Amino acid sequence: MNKPLIIITSLAIVLGFASALFLLKPQPVQLQAVTWLGEQAKPLPAFELTDHNNKPFNNETIKGKWNLLFFGYTNCPDICPDTLTTLTNMVAQIKDKKVLEQLQLTFISVDPDRDSQEKMKAYVTYFNKDFMSARADIDSVNTLTDATGILHYIVKSTEGDVYEVAHSGSLILIDPQARFAGVFSSPHDSSKIAHDLTSLINS
Fold this sequence. Notes:
The protein is of the alpha+beta class.
């Protein structure tokens, strides 16, 4: 074998090994919508809420799944129904059953004085039977909103119980270790959220 042929053959072998190593090496997840905290994911402070089936919703009960949290209230005129509709469309776009099994979407009330468990259950399951909701007194809810950067406040009214609650439309992603792992900021795109959740859960 002549020298040029030896060089070419050796180069081909080296390139072959390099290509194999590249293909075997896990590729970084390409995300489209989420602000991903990665190694900066933060454990949530201790919190205690109750879901609409009257079961505990806390640091321990949410472990083992990816949780997507949305903070709102059932009397919301626009942000909440629009976002829940987007999330319904998002779930419909995820065709991987394993991803859906590892994902839980939970609506948390920032208006617990008016949002009973029964009212919240009827509200969220109207959009999707698998959606969950949770509530607690406002101080307990604030433990979560403060930790995840969700702003909310009551817009005062002169008509007694008739008022609105201004709140963030962001979606908070909690990883299976119950850590604050990412944020989907509004406006939301159902396709991009579906892509990111599928990529993260399968990574």
